Fold this sequence. Notes:
Layout (H helix, E strand, L loop, with lengths): L6 E4 L6 H10 L4 E4 L14 H14 L5 E3 L11 H20 L4 E4 L2 E2 L5 H13 L2 H4 L5 E5 L7 E2 L3 H11 L5 E6 H7 L6 H14 L5 E6 L1 E2 L10 E2 L8 H10 L4 E3 L5 H18 L1
Parallel strand pairs: 1-2, 1-12, 2-3, 3-4, 4-6, 6-8, 8-9, 9-12
Antiparallel strand pairs: 5-7, 10-11
Amino acid sequence: MKKKILIGAHTSAAGGPHRALYQGQEIGATTIQLFTSNQKQWQGSKIGAEEIALWDKALAETGITEVMSHDSYLINLGAPDLEILTKSRKAFREEIERCHALKIAYLNFHPGAYTTSSLEECLETIVQSLLETEELVQKGQTKLLLETTAGQGTSVGHKFEHIGAIIERVKGKIPIGVCIDTCHIFVAGYDIRTEEGWAKTLREFDDKIGLQYLMAFHVNDSAKDFGSRVDRHADIGQGKIGWESFRYLMQNTEVPKYLETPSGPPSWKNEIITLRKYAEEKN
């Protein structure tokens, strides 16, 4: 029996979270990422019984599994400003609660940015923010996934050692893992254009973090150059990384993969077909 290839995209939850599952089905996805609430607002809505029922029905009808949520873009778990930090921690807890209500497998989040403080202070604040969720996060099935970043501004997470330092402090207390964004690591200075480059990158990930924590990928080409630290996604094969990198990724890793490429559903459908073919070549 063939192993299910978990590949999908960040689909739209406009009209309710269940809509994201049906859009996933339309593009041939076996997994999806979504926003459970408006990603540009602090105040998120609670998930009601009717939404849960519609979600469960859609899950059964689509067969989609390993769903991942992406938290609000406003959240900064490492913020030095107390007001922003308080809002961020509250919004993050509410996101965990929505994930629990929908029995979502993964909650993907950007680690944070130090703005007016320092890298070390930011990492410590992120750790404390995560540890504050310990009791809550244990009540559900959702794993918290730190996303690798591009390194724009004062954001942390563009070096594997940043992620590793956070995980070292919280492992065993909260269910933690990592989502690698291919565009982000490429512009952050990890050259994944070749098989040799991928092998070196994954060795470094294992050394600085541990491959057991690698639980998902955001699959994106990059419109900007290697090492530029500028976050601009491109469609697969239309950027600076190129198709061969993604062939290697599909043939050598089995964790869920989520497209965030800019052209949207029609392009996602074709990208999923090609990426699935790459995975099947190995089988």
